[in-house]
Amino acid sequence: MDQKLVAVAVELLDEEGWPALSLDRIAERAGVSRATVWRHGLTRASVEALLRRRLVADYRELMWAPLTMDGSGRDRLTAALHALCAVAERNLPLLAHTEEAFHGPDLDGVGEQLDFFGPWLRILEAGAADGTLDPPQDRERYVVALTNLTLLTYVHLRAFHGPYGWTAASTADYLVDLLASGYR
């Protein structure tokens, strides 16, 4: 796909949501003909598939990195929360318009499989082994709650409250501190 047209489509998605991804709207914004957009195969489905593949690639790249760092399990958990915020930031147009981006049927539809729990479970094991994290009774339930608290809050603050000062860095720092340290 033509990267300029993809960038225009992502910009439209970010600004107006899925209904904006039509051949006519993409062509108008890009200053090309509808036929040009069609020839490049740019449809809502193709843009969505491309964005989901990017999301998976970013998750794989960023979420496994904390496992290679020095430090305690607690340090790795904090780094993983920051990494998850970075994944969200890189994929904000997609994540702001769907809450199911990481769910199986949507990934299966684009031919992607993702070990979502793998890095988190390894971090929790490392933290339990070095005594810096109390092991949760139901690890997968804990990961689902933690990642949803992080992702959904981060995406909402960045996508809908950005004009009020929720920058990428300040949002990540605030959320990670709140989730890792808690109110108390």
Defining key terms:
184 residues, elongated, mainly alpha, 68% helix, 10 helices
Topology (SSEs and partners):
Elements: H1 3-16, H2 23-30, H3 34-39, H4 44-63, H5 73-90, H6 92-95, H7 104-108, H8 118-130, H9 139-161, H10 168-181
Helix pairs in contact: 1-2, 4-5, 5-8, 5-9, 5-10, 9-10
Q: Termini distance?
A: 50 Å
Strand content: under 5%
Structural class, from secondary structure content?
mainly alpha
Net shape: elongated
Mean of all residue-level pLDDT scores: 92
Pick out the low-confidence regions.
Answer: none
State the helical fraction.
55-70%
The whole-angstrom Rg is: 18 Å
Give the SSE order as H and E letters. HHHHHHHHHH
For the biggest sheet, the summary is: none
Number of strands: 0
How many helices in DSSP terms? 10
Give an overview of the whole structure:
- The protein has helices at residues 3-16, 23-30, 34-39, 44-63, 73-90, 92-95, 104-108, 118-130, 139-161, 168-181.
- It is an all-alpha fold and 184 residues long.
- The longest helix has 23 residues, at 139-161.
Short description:
With 184 residues, the protein is mostly helical.
